[in-house]
């Protein structure tokens, strides 16, 4: 037996090991760590009500489109980037902002632009200007133009109407059309949101020093089952 195998064979595995914290406190500053937070305090801004409304509208709209097969997982507890984006939206709706932020960061780190946009709205809603600007820069929205064109019937000569179809504009329109408290999500969205929030809260209770959501075993199977059952 090689030396390394002999050492591992004698290693003691704890039944419930302590998981150390592996994250650092977030500081919203152009120069993190400089001036003991003085710059962050000077740059602090009040919460942005428009960002709060837009993020809630986006999350509600996405959760309303959940269906069996929508959420895909890499492991029993780790979703694929797009699934992490959707689960982050579920946590945001449930009021677990830290869990939502970390799942969005996980997805955005894999190049998922919609998650970066959610992070931008999340930090704007908290008045964190530097973080909001950073994540907006990861969306690529400034480098692309998203327009749509529809023909106008009855006009002579025929004409077309071009309008802004970018995500920020669509969200502003949806937010304006939906009165607060009148939008109702499908039952499957509420069922999944409740379960995800419960699993993540239990994970935080088991590992209080870890900020990344740890939902526990059988998480992927349970979420998939709930979506299938609620769709019937």
Structure in words:
Residues 19-25 and 33-43 have low confidence and may be disordered. The chain contains ten helices and two strands; from the N terminus they run H-H-H-H-H-H-H-E-E-H-H-H. It has a two-stranded antiparallel sheet. With 232 residues, the chain is mainly alpha-helical. Helix 3 crosses helix 4, helix 4 (81-93) packs antiparallel against helix 5 (97-109) and helix 4 (81-93) packs across helix 9. The chain is 53% helix and 5% strand.
Assembly type of the shown chains? single chain
Average of pLDDT:
75
Roughly how many Å apart are the termini?
55 Å
Helix % is 40-55%
Helix and strand layout, with pairings?
Elements: H1 3-9, H2 38-43, H3 49-64, H4 81-93, H5 97-109, H6 113-125, H7 129-139, E1 147-152, E2 159-164, H8 167-177, H9 187-206, H10 219-230
Antiparallel strand pairs: 1-2
Helix pairs in contact: 3-4, 3-6, 3-8, 4-5, 4-9, 5-6, 6-7, 9-10
């Amino acid at each position: 037996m090689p030396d390394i195998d002999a050492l591992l064979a004698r290693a003691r595995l704890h039944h419930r090991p302590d998981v150390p914290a592996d994250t650092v406190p977030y500081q919203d500053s152009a120069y993190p760590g400089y001036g003991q937070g003085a710059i962050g305090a000077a740059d602090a801004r009040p919460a942005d009500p428009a960002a709060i409304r837009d993020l809630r509208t986006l999350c509600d709209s996405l959760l309303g489109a959940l269906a069996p097969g929508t959420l895909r997982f890499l492991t029993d507890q780790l979703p694929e980037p797009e699934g992490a984006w959707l689960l982050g939206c579920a946590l945001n709706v449930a009021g677990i902002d830290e869990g939502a932020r970390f799942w969005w960061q996980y997805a955005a780190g894999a190049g998922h632009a919609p998650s970066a946009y959610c992070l931008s709205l999340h930090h704007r809603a908290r008045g964190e200007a530097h973080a909001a600007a950073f994540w907006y820069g990861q969306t690529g929205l400034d480098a692309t133009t998203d327009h749509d064109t529809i023909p106008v019937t009855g006009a002579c000569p025929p004409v077309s109407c071009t309008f802004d179809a970018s995500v920020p504009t669509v969200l502003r329109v949806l937010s304006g059309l939906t009165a607060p408290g009148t939008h109702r999500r499908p039952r499957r969205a509420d069922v999944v949101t409740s379960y995800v929030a419960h699993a993540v809260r239990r994970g935080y209770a088991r590992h209080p020093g870890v900020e990344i959501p740890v939902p526990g075993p059988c998480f992927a199977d349970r979420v998939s089952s709930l979506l299938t059952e609620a769709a019937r």
